[in-house]
Amino acid sequence: MSKHDQPFDYRHQFKAGNLGDVFKHVALGAVLRELTADPRPLTVVDTHAGAGRYVLGPTGEWTAGVGRFDAGLPADAPAAVRAWHAAAARRTPNRGGTYPGSPRFALGALRPQDRLVLVELIDEVRAELAAHLDDPRVEVRGGDGLAALAALHATPGRLLAFVDPPFTRKAEWDEVADALVALHAARPDAHALLWYPIKSLTRPNALHRRLQDAGVPALALDLVTASLERRKKALNGSGLVVVGAGAALAAELLGVAPTLGPALTTDGGWELRARRWGLPIPT
Ligand SMILES: C[S@@+](CC[C@H](N)C(=O)[O-])C[C@H]1O[C@@H](n2cnc3c(N)ncnc32)[C@H](O)[C@@H]1O
Hints:
Oligomer: single chain
Structural class: alpha/beta
CATH class: Alpha Beta
Number of helices: 9
Shape: globular
CATH superfamily: Vaccinia Virus protein VP39
Bound molecules: S-adenosylmethionine
Radius of gyration: 18 Å
Number of domains: 1
Largest sheet: 8 strands, mixed
C-alpha cells in the first residue's frame, strides 16, 4: 500500500474551526485579498481541500477556536480578522452550526477571471466537496495534492499554492518542503501559503532551515498559544510559511497576532515567532 492509498485515518471534521483553522483561514483571506487586488487572473491550488464545509457538534475543537469569537471581536481587531469573522462566524452560533473550509474561503475571494483547483484524496470527502461547490471556476480532483501541484507548475498566469496537509505522517514535513522547493525552482513568481501544526518547535525549525538552505525566500509565522514545555504532544499553536509575501502583506499577517493570540491561548500566554529569510529588508 503506497503512502497515499486509502483508507486513511484523518478526518478534518473533528478539527474544523479549531485554533489552527482560525489562523490559517485568516491568513488565506489576507493573501487572497492581496493577490486579487491585481486584475490579472489567478489560479489557486488547494492541495488538501477537505470537505469544504463542516457541521460542528455541540462540543469539539472548534470551541477553542472559532468558538472563542462567538461573543464578537475586540474593537481593535484588524481587517483580516474582521473579514474572516464575517465569512465564518455568522455561520457559527454558540452551539455548533457549520464552519466553512478553505475551498469556501477561497471561492468567496475569487473573481470571475480566477480558477480554483481543489485536490482531495479521500473519495467520500471529495464527493461532499463536489456536492457543495458547483461553480464553473472550480475543478475538484482526486489523488495526491502535492503531485497535482507539481503537474500545475506550468499553468499559465499567476499561481497560489495553498498547502494544508493533515500531518499524520512525519514524512509530510519533508514532502511539503520538497514541494515548495520544487515550486520555487519551476516558478519563482509563484505564491504559496503552507500551514503546519505546532506541538514543539523541532519540526517547524527544521522546515524553515530546509527552505532557507534551498533558497526559497519566505516569511514564517509561528503563533504559539500554549506553553510548549507543559503539553508536549498537544496542539500548542500553528504556523505558516508564506512565499511571495510583499511588505504590506507581511505587516498585515503580523498584525493579526495581537487579536488571535489572546483569544486562542489555552493557558493565558501566547507568543508570535516571526522569521524571514531571503527577502529584502522593508524600508
Ligand atoms: C487539514 S485537512 C484540510 C482542511 C482544509 N484545507 C481546510 O482548510 O478547510 C487535510 C485534508 O487532506 C486530505 N488528504 C490527506 N492526504 C492527502 C493527499 N495526499 N492529497 C490530497 N489530500 C489529502 C485529507 O483527507 C483531509 O481532508
